[in-house]
Every structure is written in structure tokens, then in C-alpha cells.
Amino acid sequence: MPTRRWCKNGFVTNHGEPPTTGELHEPPADDTTPRQSRVRRALSAPGRLVGSWIEADGAKASGLSSLTYTTICNSGVDAALAVALAGTLFFSATTGESREGVALYLLVTIAPFAVIAPLIGPALDRVYAGRRFALSLTFAARIVLTVWLLTNFHSWVLYPAALGMMVMSKSFGVLKSSVTPRLMPPDIDLVRTNARLTILGHIVGSGGVGAIAAGVSFLFTPREALWVIIVIALMGLYSCVLIPRKAESSPDEWATTSPLSVPGAPLTEDSSLDDDPTTDATATDAVPPRQSASDSSPRRQAVRQRVTRAAQQLHIVPFPHDAKTCLWSVMTSRSGTGFLTIFVAFAAKSTHGLSAWEQLAMLAAAGAAGSVGTFSGNLLGARIPLGAPRVTVLTIAGIAWAGVICAAIWPGLIWTAVATFALSLSSSLCKVSLDATIQEGLPEEARSSAFGRSETFGQLAWVFGGTMGIVLPPQLGTGFIALSIIIGVGYLRTLFLAVKVPHVRRH
After folding, report:
1. Helix/strand/coil (H, E, C) string of 68-137?
2. What are 320-350's pLDDT values in tens digits?
3. Does the domain made of 321-499 have the CATH classification 1.10.760.10?
């Protein structure tokens, strides 16, 4: 009996012969399916692109993709909080109208680091088998604080709750940096891994979630944007569950990596303590191994042992030599970005002959240059193998210094934007290099406190630059001359550390 079937050329009649290869096709469900498929593919293309980058270079197999999703959620929570609190002291843009208000803002930005460096960093170093739980706890705490804010948005509760959320965000950053080496794919290095996490957090988290929160705030009220925080934090909690167990470590691993793993054990001279990461580890090079009579007194030895024991409990260890070089470059660049963030606002406000639109254009140009510089730095770090961190930071910091000098010679809008771009580029590249040197050069049980100290020193440098922007006269020429001197001193210190050969201590 003849039958009809569908082939690529249409319906044909089958008189009993076997179908050919070209005839083995099913008819489409309807005529609109191809068009719907094209629309669906076009709408899902950005998601597929982001997903492919998140899982590229073996990140899915190593577990780095799960950590990337948590990083995106953390950046999204921060962006939504900034939108919700845009009219408050915490995340408001600097207008240059009140020096006292700006000084208070600078003090507020330091507050979370006063907790991170001395308390949370050493405490996280002791969490060796529960770091996934600690990561999820940072999201859970922010959910609780957000609910508290929802019920007390227009009261004094706003300030301690917002500070608590800032502390949780910085704690997440410290934990994320400590966990990253365990989840790094074998095909890429730590610099590119750190840069990839940062740039995806900025693009998808800060950009995407921030836009959603801004839309909610525009359609309803800034208070309603807090609901976006709850949703994204719940997604972050789920992403923490997906992080593989190899992100954890065990006491057995610690026992074979560092003398810090044994409480009360005496430190070797290679693991001697240094409170100040900016202090040169080779300061004792000239000290002979023989001790004087006063140094060998029982009282002095007892004091030294007590200090050593106390420092061991805090997990205070000196930074590796390359990390000190990168830290000074980060502090130098961040002092410059902090200076320009505050100074340009005052300079635009006090410049005679500029209309309100021209002042706004000056602020927008500097802000855009800073954002593009930060994005470009992270993008370069994510896509290009940079090699030795010392060479990288010296090169990029030197370029930033040259941009500042040009702005001091030819003060104006164009060179202000160029200097802002160069300093932001330097800050982002030096930061990912610093994180890589800490991750490679320190044992796992000392990384969290090291990251806490590095973040604290970087923020202090930013506040120092912002303070100089308040103190100096609001004139572009004068400001950039002072900034070139500050950047020059920091760069020369970085150069000195880079060329100095680290000393190997005698046992």
C-alpha cells in the first residue's frame, strides 16, 4: 500500500522500495519553529558566551567555575547594596561640596579592614576543613543583615548593618583568594586565574546585577532593591555548595607544609616574624650570627619567646620577596587612584569659568577613564601570560608614573583622564600579581591573614591619597606635581625591592 513520508524535498510516495538516506527526515512541527529557534539562540547567546568563558581552560573540571559563580554573586550583592544605599554616606559619589563629609567617608571605608586584618584573617587561617562553609556563611550573614535593613531602612540600624555587610564582603574576598590555588586549572597560571575571577565579577556581577537593582530602584524605591540582594545571596549560597571538596584541606596536609601547623613549635629563622609587610626582610643581613651578651640574657630570651608564641597564634608571617615588591606597587597605584577620586571633584568644583555641565563632563571623563583602566588591567591579566610579577609591576607602575608627570606638565582634562587610566590600569594589574605571589609563596594556613593585611595596606594607601586630595589646593597643576612626587617615592621604593636580592638566613 502506497504511503507518504517526509523528505528534505517534501512529501513523496513510497511504493514499497526502501527509503534513501536523503528521505529519512521528520517534518517540522510547524512553520514557525526555525524562526523561534533563531530568536531563542540570539537571546541566549550572551549567557552561552559568559558560560563558555567561566568554564574555559578546564575550569569546570577543576571546580574553578563554581568559585567563579560565587564571586559573581558576591560582586552582585555589593552592587545591589550600592544601589540601595546610593543616597547614604556609604556609597554616595563624592561631590566635592563638603570636605568634612568626604573625610568621614574615608574613615568609613577603613572600618571593615580594622576587623579583617587583626581578627578575621587569622581566624580564617584556622578554618582548614570548613572553608566552603565559611564562604556560605558570608552570604547567609548578609541575608540576615538585609532582612534587618528591610525592616529598619530609615533608622540608625542602616549604618551598623551596612558596615556588617562590608565586613562580610571583604571576608569573602580573603577566603576566595585563599581557596583559589586549590581550584586552579593546570593550563593557566594564578595571575590569569585571579584576573578572570575579578573581571567576571565586575562584568556579570557588578554590571548585570547592578543594572537589575537600578531598574528595581527606579521602578519602585531604593529600599526594594534590597530584595535583589536576598535573591543573589541565595544563589551564592547554592554556588558554595557546588564547590568541590578539594577546596578543603586537612590537618595532615598542614603538618607537612609549615612549622606554623604545630602550636607552640619554635620557628626557624626562615619563618621569623615580621609584623610590617612593608619592612624589608633583609634588614638583618648585616647582623652577625653571634649574639651579644645582652641579647643572650635569660630575660631577653623569655620576652622573645613570648612574642614569638603570640605571633604564631596570630599566624603573622613575613611576605615573600616578590609579594613585598607587588605590595608596594599596589600601594603606590592605589594612593594615586584615591587622590584622583577626591581631588578631581574638588578641582572641578573650584575651577573658575566652568559651567555645571562642564564640571560634570570633567568628573565623567575621569570616572570613565578609571573604569576603563580597571577593566583593561583585569582583561590583560586574564588573557595574557605576564611572566615574572616583579617585571610586570615595575613596567606598569613606571608607565603610570610617566602619565602622572605628563599631567603635571600639561594640566588639563585630557592628561587628567590619561593619568587616571594609567593609575587604574596599574592598580588592577599589580593587584592580581600581588595575589598570585601570596598564593604561591605562603603556606595555606597563613594566606588568609596575609590577604587581610595586603587588603588593609592597599585601602590605607587609597585613604592616604584621598586625604591628600582634601588637603591640597584644588588646582590641577599643583595637585599633579604633588601626586608625581608621591608616586615617584613609591615607585623608587618598589624598584629598590625588585632589584634587591633576597637574603637566605642561616639556621
Report:
1. HHHHHHHHHHHHHHHHHCCCCCCCCCCCCCCHHHHHHHHHHHHHHHHHHHHHHHHHHHCCCCCHHHHHHH
2. 888 889 999 999 999 999 999 888 888 887 7
3. no
